[in-house]
Amino acid sequence: MKEDLMEIICCPLDKHDLNLEVTERDDGEILSGELTCTECSETFPIEDGIPNLLPPDMRDEAPA
Amino acid sequence: MGDGEDRPSLADQRGVESVYQPAEDSDLLARTARERVEAGDTVLDVGTGSGYVAATLADAGARRAVGVDVSPLACREAADNGVPVVRGDLVEPFQRDAFDIVTFNPPYLPTPSEQEWDDWMEHALSGGDDGRRLVDPFLETVERVLAPGGEGLMLVSSLTDPDAVRAYASEQGLASEQLASEKHPYEALVVLRFYRV
């Protein structure tokens, strides 16, 4: 993901802002890292450049 | 329009893949939305699948066209197609007032529950018993992320009962109009526009 995506995403649970922690960056593209809600402290992974902002209870679900 | 018994299975109607590929419905939605996008708009495509609608709107001049999908396979494919994508549930991971246009080509085919949930493709096609499994939650939540003057554009089928969809939108405080309609085998495809009253 590009960093400017931070302007429009939020915590899916309480809609507060997210903090970005970058683990791996390549040419302006954030490849891995973590997003943390500034309010509820829930964490959301960025993997292979894609932020996973599913609520934790939907994260590991098979299709349904 | 029959009662459904003589319709082919969902997979037969749409081809077998694990990520929904652009078909007549995505194309009608993309063509309709393309006419409405203005330079500088920020756009969200919900259930973006391959990212086709988002990519079309980026090409039409949107400043930013983002996709969201619950399927990890769809997210990967949209990203590989150059679409900024978020894995998420409908509009839940997006900020208030963020978008000028939100497009959605939902799973809209009414599907008996015994036929459901084999895989991600079935998830992308099945709209549940009434075809509105994700249509209704979208209408309940989209208003929060619309910028002032923003609009939601959703594709539904005649099989999904567009009048009932519009009535439900009205209960959520959204006005609506029909922007486009196209006849196809088994169904008519309709693009509805939703906006704040």
UniProtKB/TrEMBL annotation, chain A:
Protein name: Trm112p-like protein
PANTHER family: PROTEIN PREY, MITOCHONDRIAL, ZGC:162634
Organism: Haloarcula japonica (strain ATCC 49778 / DSM 6131 / JCM 7785 / NBRC 101032 / NCIMB 13157 / TR-1)
InterPro entries linked to this entry: Trm112-like
Domain of life: Archaea
Coiled-coil zones: none
Alphabetized Pfam families for the sequence: Trm112p (PF03966)
Automatic annotation (TrEMBL), chain B:
GO biological process, one term: methylation
Protein name as annotated: Methyltransferase
UniProt KW Zinc keyword: no
GO MF terms, alphabetically ordered: protein methyltransferase activity; S-adenosylmethionine-dependent methyltransferase activity
CDD domains: AdoMet_MTases (cd02440)
Domain (Methyltransferase): residue spans on this chain: 43-115
PANTHER family assigned: METHYLTRANSFERASE N6AMT1 (PTHR45875)
Gene3D superfamilies reported in the protein's UniProt record: Vaccinia Virus protein VP39
Keywords: Methyltransferase, S-adenosyl-L-methionine, Transferase
Region span, Disordered: 1-25
Pfam families: Methyltransf_25
The species this protein was found in: Haloarcula japonica (strain ATCC 49778 / DSM 6131 / JCM 7785 / NBRC 101032 / NCIMB 13157 / TR-1)
